[in-house]
Automatic annotation (TrEMBL):
InterPro entries: QcrA_N, Rieske_2Fe-2S, Rieske_2Fe-2S_sf, Rieske_Fe-S_prot. It is a multi-pass membrane protein. This is Cytochrome bc1 complex Rieske iron-sulfur subunit. It is found in: Cell membrane.
Amino acid sequence: MTSIESSGGQGGQLAEMNGFENPGLPEHKPRITDSSPTAERLAERQIAAWFIVSMIGTIWFIVAYFLFPVGDSGALVRIHTMAVGLGATAALAGIGIGIILWAKTLVTDAEIVEERHDMGGTEEDQAIALEILNQAKDESGIARRSLIRNTLIAAVAIAPLPAILVFRDLGPLPGDKLFQTLWGPGIRLCKDIGMIPEQSQIMPIRAADVTIGSAFHVIPENLRDSGHPLDEKAKAAVLLMRADPNELNTDPDRESWGVDGIVAYSKVCTHVGCPVALYEHQTHHLLCPCHQSTFDVTNHCKVIFGPAKRPLPQLPIAVDDEGYLVAQSDFTEPVGPTFWEINTRETNA
């Protein structure tokens, strides 16, 4: 049982708990900025400098956005991403580091103990709350440290500007563009090799090379000739897998869509469009790494877990006279997130 002994006065109370006495608060050790005005001014300038770094990062993000436009080349995409990424990093890190330095060097660091009291809305409690806010203002120095205050306000004020450019890049909804991809009758399925489509090797896949348990990331043979290889690859990307035909629960109207257990499905998740890239051949599950939507290959990639609302679209495939896998047609339903399809249906209606 806990016992509490009082030795006179709030500051002299000692709590004895299970035989151990409360040691009280440790002795406060002042920092150099607490006793040296020179160190205090230096710390203030360092904090303001970080806020200025944040502003420079924001401005660089905007400049880099226009200076390095995104083209159809993968190299241009990487340069653009690196340039605007550096700006965003400086913008956010500058504010974060500045605030941390402020708290570490200038905000009062003395430890205090406040007794818990009943919450209420009386005028007295409101006055106490206002006093606490004023005390926090005084301890932080935000009222009297105009250099820090002004640079922080400026950095925070312009920090949202890059978001406007990012939202602008989202553009309009795709409309009926997701109903059409590069796949069509006789288009060969090729291995997806290389990050840059125009430099990728075109390697058609033979049905005999697809073994049970294997999976291939596939692109259409005519990707290079599309004029917009990055955009078209994003829509036409396919996962090709082979399972034991006896393990596939094939619908009667889709019996001709596969080749001896070889099936192909869109790689674009029907949740928010992330690339479905993880195949577990023992369970025949496809996993989207973004939000863990899981699709069952043995049941036409129906959703068995996660936020996705519809199965992955299946690409009908066949074998040509030379033994290569080819598409029978385009997808029979739109690829991509379900909300895009719903929007398109409403628009067309």
